[in-house]
Design brief:
The protein is mainly α and 148 residues long. It has helices spanning 2-35, 39-70, 83-109, 118-143. Helix 1 packs antiparallel against helix 2, helix 1 runs antiparallel to helix 4 (118-143) and helix 3 packs antiparallel against helix 4. The two termini are 28 Å apart. The mean pLDDT is 94.
C-alpha cells in the first residue's frame, strides 16, 4: 500500500506539473507572443507557482523514492546497464535540465521581463513544457514496456 500511495502522489504531482505547463504554453504563451501582453504571463505565474512548485517538490521527492525502490544501489542509477537505470538517468537528466532553465529564467529573465526579452522566456517555457511531457512519457514507457 505504501508504494501505491507514493506512486499516486507522484502521478498527481506529475499531472499538475505537466498540465500546468501545457496550459501555460497553449493558453498563455501563444496569445502573449501574438499581442505582446507580458502581464498575462506574470499573472499566470503568480497563480500557478502556488500549486506548481509544491507539485514539483512532491514529484522530485516521490520520484527519488520510487527510483530507490526499484534500484536501491545508487551507483547503478548511472550505469545504463538496465532498463530501470536508463529510465532513472533520463529522468535525472530531464530534472537537471529543468532546474537549470528554471533558475536561469527566475534570476535573469523574469525580473526584467519585457517585450524585448519575451522570446527568451518563450524559449524557456517551450523547453520546460517539452521536458515535462518527456518526464511523463518516460514514466509511462517504463511502466508499460520501456523504449529504453
Amino acid at each position: 500500500m505504501h508504494y501505491s500511495a507514493v506512486l499516486a502522489l507522484h502521478l498527481m504531482a506529475a499531472t499538475i506539473w505537466t498540465g500546468g505547463h501545457l496550459i501555460l504554453f497553449f493558453t498563455v504563451l501563444l496569445p502573449t507572443l501574438r499581442d505582446k501582453n507580458i502581464d498575462r504571463i506574470r499573472a499566470f505565474e503568480r497563480r500557478y507557482e502556488k500549486i506548481g512548485i509544491p507539485a514539483l517538490l512532491v514529484l522530485v521527492l516521490t520520484g527519488l523514492y520510487l527510483a530507490w525502490r526499484q534500484e536501491p544501489e545508487f551507483a547503478r542509477w548511472f550505469s545504463a546497464a538496465t532498463t530501470i537505470s536508463r529510465t532513472i538517468m533520463v529522468k535525472l537528466s530531464l530534472l537537471a535540465s529543468t532546474a537549470v532553465l528554471a533558475v536561469h529564467a527566475r534570476l535573469f529573465i523574469i525580473p526584467s521581463l519585457s517585450k524585448e526579452t519575451l522570446f527568451s522566456l518563450a524559449l524557456h517555457i517551450t523547453l520546460v513544457t517539452m521536458m515535462a511531457v518527456l518526464f511523463a512519457l518516460t514514466g509511462l514507457f517504463h511502466r508499460f514496456g520501456s523504449i529504453w
